[in-house]
Specification:
Elements: H1 15-31, E1 47-51, E2 54-57, H2 58-68, H3 82-103, H4 110-136, H5 139-152, E3 157-166, H6 169-180, H7 185-192, E4 204-209, H8 215-221, E5 229-235, E6 238-249, H9 255-281
Antiparallel strand pairs: 1-2, 3-4, 3-6, 5-6
Helix pairs in contact: 1-2, 1-3, 1-4, 2-3, 4-9, 5-9
Length: 333
């Protein structure tokens, strides 16, 4: 398997959908109450509230927090935290609303039944993806793809530099004269640079590769070595002086740093293969759309479907390190 490990793939239900699904599940639970649960649904789970005869578990609150996107999957959520209690209140509200919906027989409405059916299908698909990932995305697979990517990746040079950006060449020349007299580059950057994003940290650009910088930077850095002061040279942002702090080979991501990207990539790969097999066996017939409604203008497009495509498997394989600090010199003045 070769390919660039890229953007997160939406192989399961999106966070906004999960919140809606949670309400649907609560509605189903309210329709079929059997009394409060006597046993925790997960090992080590604890009851944190009760609504009439229904127990609210800490895992319910964590699941809702993940659905809302306030924490990531697998992240802990302290039961004593303000965030936990805020989400708990929302879970309680959902249970109250679901119980009231059941009392009013909302579930008998055909539109409600259709939405509950759709919610059930999404949840089942999500759980299937989770089981597939648990079986296929293991340490051995992660290590194998990591090693393969390391072999395919090419190390490029990184620079660590500071910059001072000013409006005119005259001012830049005056600053360079001060630097030649042992003035502090960091202090002058804080005092004189017009670049708001870097001036208050002494003009620090962090580590970066020359290809992400404007051409004038790349040309100036090409022959540079650590300790050099470059420029002034003109850019769209103004006249720039650079101090090269370090020059080194780009550091590849460690296995731990790359692991989240690899897990997403492997997850996409497994789900893609499964869907290809299922579509090959199923009889899927796409019907032509109805005639365009007069309510929709000729140039108007309907809402696009969620993008379920993952990283391009033909793209160059490389484990990208975290990006450098923003490079304000790329901005237009």
């Amino acid at each position: 398997m070769k390919g660039r490990i890229g953007k997160p793939v939406r192989t399961a239900v999106r966070a906004g959908e999960l919140a809606a699904l949670g309400l649907c599940l609560l509605l189903l639970a309210a329709c079929d109450r059997q009394g409060g649960q006597a046993r925790p649904p997960e090992p080590g789970d604890m009851a944190v509230a009760s609504v009439d005869d229904q127990t609210v578990w800490a895992s319910d609150v964590r699941r809702e927090a993940v659905a809302q996107g306030v924490i990531g999957e697998g992240e802990p959520l302290d039961a004593s935290s303000e965030l936990f209690h805020r989400v708990l209140d929302e879970v309680v509200d959902q249970k109250l609303l679901a119980a009231e919906a059941a009392r009013r027989h909302v579930e008998s409405d055909p539109a409600t039944r259709r939405r509950l059916t759709a919610a059930r299908e999404r949840i089942l698909g999500d759980m299937l993806v989770q089981k597939i990932v648990e079986q296929a995305v293991n340490d051995k697979a992660i290590r194998g793809l990591y090693d393969e990517q390391r072999k395919l990746s090419k190390q490029t040079e990184q620079f660590h530099a500071r910059q001072i950006v000013v409006a005119s060449q005259t001012e830049a020349d005056a600053i360079k004269k001060l630097l030649s007299n042992k003035a502090s580059f960091e202090a002058l950057a804080m005092q004189r640079s017009t670049d708001a994003a870097t001036r208050f940290n002494g003009g620090d650009l962090g580590y970066f590769t020359a290809d992400v910088m404007p051409d004038a930077y790349a040309a100036a850095l090409k022959p540079a070595k650590a300790g050099d002061v470059l420029g002034p040279f003109k850019t769209d942002a103004g006249w720039v002086l650079l101090k090269v702090e370090d020059r080194r080979l780009e550091q590849p991501l460690s296995l731990e740093e790359a692991k989240p990207q690899i897990v997403r990539f492997l997850t996409y790969d497994q789900v893609r293969d499964l869907l290809q097999k299922l579509r090959a066996k199923a009889k899927v017939k796409l019907l032509p759309p109805p005639a365009q409604s007069s309510a929709q203008s000729p140039g108007q497009s309907p809402n696009p479907s969620p993008n379920l495509r993952g990283p391009n498997p033909q793209a160059s394989a490389r484990l990208d390190p975290p990006p450098p600090n923003p490079t304000p010199a790329k901005k237009k003045p």
